[in-house]
């Protein structure tokens, strides 16, 4: 699709590489992975993506990564999601988990945790934020102090001892380490919220059962239990009580990337609907020549194009603006998430009974279009972020 937004040459090259990988490696496995048991994980597909460099996109070139920034990462995620949103989320969640170490600026942490992503075998990371009674509150700065029953961290000499449970952690079942949010004992409200890098093979960490999800089935989400887990003080990100500072930057990257994934889902739905409407003859002429269907396809196309431009702008801002903007990424995610749902539903209405069958892929897109409206900011959370920016409370 044409765009006035000119991508840097290295991002264009990456886009083409990822598109080829998605079509030749990911697509043949999409249906099988969607029908597989909830705890089945396709390491072979991830391994081939790792060989392409998809687990080191945001690691700077001087540290051995591809260094394409949030923009390159987002473009890659759209290409993956246009074939399989689950696969895109596996890579996207791992890249966002890495941001804890990247943003720390701590060479010691970077030297300990980043080289694993440069090796021969794929290694995944994750963020561990959500809990039973603390989800959206942790994404709204003014509400964070009200989050109930947040995991606790107790200082013990040169270590911290973490106790609590994290829920719905993307990649939690297969990741090597997590950026874990916990509240320091003795602190009121959000003043003690701190981010720790925790290897998930640490004593006291237990991985629960994989969630049997409606969509994103090739990406495993699980519960993580922390029972008196000892974490060295050098694994603290930014310092004690700085979790919201980290989250402010990470959320803006995440929203740009999720907006790209939703754009890919919408694009896939549009492609299926377009192809079907070009082949299906109704009333003596192709379906797309009927005015009502043509109007649907035109509006679907407009939504995909608008969603793409919004996430490209948001990703560019995340790479180049300090402080990281709240408004652009929130608008991009709000629009793209809604566009994915609407375009997928319209594709179902155009394709009809075939769309209701698994082999055509439309019903999978409908299921997965709803997922992005839950993680990394619900529409309600995004609305608060956007209006906060409109009224000058946030950048």
Q: How would you describe what is shown here?
A:
The two termini are 31 Å apart. This protein has 395 residues and is an alpha+beta fold. The chain is built from eleven helices and ten strands. Strands 1, 2, 3, 4, 5, 6, 7 and 8 form an eight-stranded mixed sheet that branches. Strands 9-10 form a two-stranded antiparallel ribbon. The model has no long low-confidence stretch (mean pLDDT 91). The radius of gyration is 21 Å and the shape is globular. It folds into three domains: 9-118, Orthogonal Bundle (Butyryl-Coa Dehydrogenase, subunit A, domain 1), CATH 1.10.540.10; 125-241, Beta Barrel (Butyryl-CoA Dehydrogenase, subunit A, domain 2), CATH 2.40.110; 244-390, Up-down Bundle (Butyryl-CoA Dehydrogenase, subunit A, domain 3).
Quick recap:
With 395 residues, the chain is an alpha+beta fold. The protein has helices at residues 9-26, 30-35, 43-52, 69-81, 85-104, 107-113, 243-279, 291-320, 327-351, 362-371, 379-390; strands at residues 125-128, 152-156, 159-170, 177-184, 193-199, 205-210, 221-232, 236-237, 281-282, 285-286. It contains 11 helices and 10 strands.
Structure characteristics:
Butyryl-CoA Dehydrogenase, subunit A, domain 3; Butyryl-CoA Dehydrogenase, subunit A, domain 2; flavoprotein; 395 residues; alpha+beta; 10 strands; AcylCoA_DH/ox_N; Acyl-CoA/acyl-ACP dehydrogenase; globular; Butyryl-Coa Dehydrogenase, subunit A, domain 1; 11 helices
